[in-house]
Amino acid sequence: YPSEFLVQKITEDNQIPLHLHVSVTLQYVAGLKGNALVEFFHGNIAEVENEELRHLMWSSVLFYKTPSVEVMACVLLSTKAIYFLLDDSFIHADEHQSDFWNKENSDCENSSFHLSCCFVLKLNDLQSVNVGLFDQYFRITGHSADHIVTCLTRDSYNTHTFIQQLMAVLSLLARTPSPEPVDKDFYSEFGSKNTGKMENYELIHSSRVKFIYPNEEEIGDLAFLVSEKMDGLTNLQSLNILLYVLAFQVYHVEGSAQNTSSLQPKTLILTSSDLFLFDEDYISYPLPEFAKEPPKRDKYQLVDGRRIRDLDRVLMGYQTYPQALTFVFDDVQNQDLMQNLTLDHFGE
Asked: Cα separation of 91 and 238, whole Å?
């Protein structure tokens, strides 16, 4: 029986982000409060009787096998496993499931019986956790390609809280201790480094699960990539990345019954002179150990880039978090006319 504080905390966390649409099944789960939520977990999701529900979080998730399908999930952390209660849209997108998840089974309009798909990652199978830049997302890696999931929290607080809870739960696992490290001599210590491979900050938990955090070089690589996209107009030394945030770009769908808008996931990067939108691969990098070839697409693909000096105004919506921003730029045909003139007249 969980403590009153824990039940209250899980109830508070059981809220679907307002801007994301979910299926009937997940709306039902989000409507559960207090002990009803705990009973739902033990009656429908938990795999063993004596496991405890420790944390609940709503997040968009990506699977390694389907990197282009971002789906909403209710993430439940227990003392035995991490459960991803998935939106129905994922089931229809997944070809392997299509035989079972047919129209008859998934049609729950006139029924009180709801079907959903639950992906389970046992804590004993967990090998590493990669935390993304500025804690905007994290990737959980198991022992195969089927066991790699990225949670796109888009929120450093949610990422931090989940990682803390996961570490606490992993501490309860009874795993065999790692063998004693062998004393290395000077040459083996410094001679076996793989040249060219970026070393990230690693924290090896007592359960032998690695927690890997990005280091400063990753920001340097990103700054270099951004400067390349700017056609070398900016000196790399003076280029500072001021903001990196996972956001959505809003596309208005006209001609529909209601003026709906679709949200496309984008990475927004603000430098001291420009604003960029990238399509980012959140699931394939860094490469898992079993990967035999690099991913088909680069980690960052430029979608749009505008100069801050061409920014005319920023419109802000009045709704609560998440905030909607509209950037209005001056549409100048030959943007760099003045800059080129100055270079011609005054040399370098």
From this structure: 47
The answer to whether 305 touches 269, Cβ cutoff 8 Å, is no
* One-character DSSP codes across 260-306: EEEEEEEEEEEESSEEEEEEE-SSS-SPPTT--S--SS-SEEEEEEE
Full set of structural domains in the chain with CATH: 4-173+200-213 (2.30.29.30), 216-329 (2.30.29)
Q: What is the pLDDT along the chain (348 residues), one digit of tens a residue?
A: 778 999 999 999 999 988 778 888 899 999 999 999 999 999 999 998 889 999 999 999 999 988 888 999 999 999 999 999 997 766 666 555 444 344 444 454 545 556 678 999 999 999 999 999 999 999 999 998 999 999 999 999 999 999 999 999 999 986 656 555 555 555 544 544 444 444 567 888 888 899 999 888 888 888 888 888 776 555 666 678 889 999 999 887 776 555 567 889 999 999 888 899 999 999 998 888 888 888 888 899 989 988 888 999 999 877 766 778 899 998 765 555 444 444 455 555
Q: Identify the CA nearest to 60 among candidates 159, 164, 188.
A: 159
Q: Are 82 and 57 in contact (CB under 8 A)?
A: no
- pTM more than 0.90: no
